[in-house]
Design goal:
There is one protein chain. Strand 8 and strand 9 form a beta hairpin. Helix 2 crosses helix 4. The protein is α/β, with parallel strands linked by helices. The longest helix is centred in the N-terminal third of the chain and has 14 residues. The chain has a single domain, classed as 4-Layer Sandwich (Metallo-beta-lactamase, Chain A). It has eight helices and 13 strands. The protein has a seven-stranded mixed sheet.
């Protein structure tokens, strides 16, 4: 292909909302809550004695990169728990790095066999450190809701499947910080002021949130990029799609 296709246009400039903000990989977005900007919207939650990570995309090396960055940003605390949204590779493929680190994976019952098979893979082309020192993964399951708390910090995990994207799908909610983390059910453009009309799967998600009584959130994290939507933007996408009951 023509190399010129890959050149950044001379008149291009980063959007102001990004250019004016100094870059940090592990970005703080709330009280003891962070996102890994290099990996989209992976959420990191700091508890008194441990760390919880939401999502483990890609492969061992991508997720190990997050683990290393978290250890540097939040030293002296171990990653005790990791959860993934669902078992597509861009959300679960890096679980082996967390198995190797000794973290407990929290998932839904239908996804357990996927992670057990992932842990048993014999790599012959590009092996990872977990392959040379395999261990039985520690997996805990929940059906509808799981709460992780130390009395001060709280993360609620909800199974918001089945839907058009996955049979079972995990969403995280932080009631103290009023932060909602989700993937593949609500999308917003990475830059710009305009929001798109909500897709049918987003409307169904809004109905689920209403049923769960989760309607006071202030921020919505899209796991596929590091832009954080506001509640007003979420409502605007629903309104454009003709849904006004949230």
């Amino acid at each position: 292909m023509d190399e010129n296709l890959f050149k950044v246009p001379e008149d291009y400039a980063m959007p102001k909302e990004n250019a004016e903000e100094s870059y940090t990989r592990i970005k703080k977005i709330g009280e003891n809550v962070y996102i890994d900007q290099d990996m989209g919207g992976i959420m990191i939650v700091e508890f008194k004695d441990f760390i919880f990570v939401m999502d483990c995309p890609g492969n061992y090396f991508m997720s190990q990169s997050t683990i290393d960055a978290v250890r540097e940003a939040i030293p002296n605390k171990t990653i005790k728990y990791v959860a993934s949204n669902h078992t597509h590779g861009d959300h679960a493929g890096g679980a082996r790095a967390y198995f190797h680190a000794g973290a407990t994976l929290i998932t839904t019952p239908a996804h357990v066999e996927f992670y057990k098979k992932l842990a048993q893979i014999k790599q012959t082309i590009r092996s990872d450190p977990f392959a040379s020192s395999p261990k039985e993964p520690v997996i805990e399951t929940f059906t509808d809701k799981r709460v992780i708390t130390d009395g001060e910090q709280t993360v609620e995990l909800h199974n918001v499947g089945p839907n058009a994207h996955s049979e079972e799908l995990v969403m995280a909610y932080l009631p103290k910080q009023k932060i909602l983390w989700q993937a593949d059910i609500f999308f917003i453009p990475y830059t710009g002021n305009e929001v798109n009309a909500a897709m049918p799967i987003t409307v169904e998600f809004a109905k689920q949130l209403k049923t769960l009584g989760i309607n006071d959130f202030e921020q919505v994290i899209d796991a596929h990029h590091s832009r954080i939507a506001t509640r007003e933007e979420f409502l605007a996408t629903l309104k454009k799609a003709g849904y006004k009951e949230f």
